[in-house]
Write a structure and sequence with these properties.
Blueprint (H helix, E strand, L loop, with lengths): L6 E8 L2 E8 L4 H8 L18 E4 L2 E4 L12 E3 L12 H8 L9 H13 L6 H7 L10 H11 L6
Parallel strand pairs: 1-5
Antiparallel strand pairs: 1-2, 3-4, 3-5
Bound molecules: FE2/S2 (inorganic) cluster (2 copies).
One FE2/S2 (inorganic) cluster binds next to loops.
Length: 161
């Protein structure tokens, strides 16, 4: 029986570095990041688009990496949580999550932070309702929602209310 080779060459710019991979067309961006590139800060929760734990930025826009095929990302920019603090200095959103206790177990936290970074760039933090609406795809089983909203509100410059 002839086996059909379904692998492709893909070039990604991950956190500013060019990474070349040869992988099966069905490999998700989440699995490529974690298993091929050893960037395990991006978490696998549901693996079916329901929890937001796997959120990364693709060309600056947030995507669920468990629903994104790596082959679709050829030539594109990917930012993961590791890319927010390249020189070891925390991103302002990371600092705010610490300041406001925006996590408990931490499993959802990297996805929450990547979504928060995008939300702030999109100018969607004008009110707590808006923050809640645009963070609604990121679930937290520990129920850290009020502190997550407080952290984002703080970075948005709306104080601690
Ligand atoms: S792991 Fe991707 S949405 Fe849950
Ligand atoms: S901090 Fe535990 S799931 Fe969010």
């Amino acid at each position: 029986m002839t086996r059909i080779d379904t692998s492709v060459d893909v070039m990604l710019r991950v956190n500013g570095s060019v990474r070349r991979l040869r992988l099966d067309t069905r490999v998700t961006l989440l699995d490529a990041l974690r298993d091929e590139l050893d960037l395990t800060g991006t978490k696998k929760g549901c693996d079916q688009g329901a929890c937001g734990a796997c959120t990364v930025l693709l060309d600056g826009k947030r995507v669920l990496s468990c629903l994104t095929l790596t082959a679709q990302c050829d030539g594109r920019d990917v930012t993961t949580i590791e890319g927010l603090a390249p020189d070891g200095r925390l991103h302002p959103v990371q600092e705010a999550f610490i300041r406001h206790d925006g996590f408990q177990c931490g499993y959802c936290t990297t996805g929450q932070i990547m979504s928060a970074v995008a939300l702030l760039q999109e100018g969607r933090a004008g009110s707590d309702e808006e923050i809640r609406e645009f963070m609604s795809g990121n679930l937290c089983r520990c129920g850290a929602y009020p502190n997550i909203v407080a952290a984002i509100r703080d970075v948005a410059g709306r104080g601690t209310e």
